Amino acid sequence: MTDNNVWQPPSSAPAPGVPSFGPPVGQPAAWTPPPKPGLIPLRPLGFGTLLGAAFQVIRRNPRPTFGIALLFNGVVLLLFAAVVGGVTAWAFGRLSSATSADSSDIQAGAIGAIIVSALIPVALSVLVAAILQGLISLEVSRATIGEKLTTRGLWRLARGRIGALIGWSALTTGAVLVAVVVVALIITLIISLGGQAGLVIGVVLAILAGLASIVLWAWISTKIALVPSVLMLERLTLPQAVRRSWRLTSGMSYFWKTLGTLLLVYVIVQVAAQVVSTPLGIVAGIGGVLINPNGDQSAGIAVIVVTYAISGVVGLVFGALASVTQSSVAALVYIDIRMRKEGLDLDLVRFVEARQVGDAGVGNPYLPAQPGPAADSPPPAPSTSPWA
Fold this sequence. Notes:
By secondary structure, the protein is mainly alpha-helical.
């Protein structure tokens, strides 16, 4: 039987000893930022979260990501077809009209012209990849805090930084070409001047140089993989951005996570492309035989043109998807490393909090909070201007 003289807690109150959560009754709850306001949670990322977010960028905001990548890759593909196709047609025209005495010289010149013409779109593709990585890093940075950029907004934020991306692309391309040319000249001289022994030494050196270049490129490309993101988000000069990327990826755990994530995404994208393109090629080959069983020349040319057109469209789509995904994962790795090393997640939470209460004077959270006197320190964020 219950004693009426003993106080009993009301049914709405928690039992004694049970913790009570939330504000007292009658008081409004304080606003707290959501654990995941946008693309990723505002905390250091696990490998699965980082990998999954890289594939969500296109689905979350397709027009300024996939659209720009499709446009850029389409321009490169058209330029490649126009330049290489035109030079190849010209070279075969010269070969068809050449005499037997001049055919060998004309053939060598034609091959050289085709190779040189192919370098133009290849160089442009490297340039496009660098620009695209910078643009996608801007989209990822805004998606992290729950914003979506339009195509016009993306270009507005990139204003003044495209030149730095072009300089970065030219620098890396030039360095690779110089290294390849120097190694090739050394091996050629050894083979030319060394006789039979020189040939053996040259072949061995070529194999060793190839293996060493793979290791060296994996190391250097990982150390400088964050340069486009630094250029766009921290707005540093090119030498400062290279040093900044080098320092961010210092440490074995950061280096191997960067290398492993970038490599895994590349493998996934390439395998997916092969899964689609290989059956397409088989079907195209079988279809060509069925459509043209008698081997008619005009029909065969038509089948080849259609096959290459379909393959080009499929390659263009997958190339755009690959470009955005690989650019996204580089930007996400940059954000994750800064969260772990510099507490960027706390700066992002503070930014989201300030935005929710209507504070329009909050600065860019991706700029380091306390720039030091070093030469490569970025300028401080304006104290009274919104991050726009």
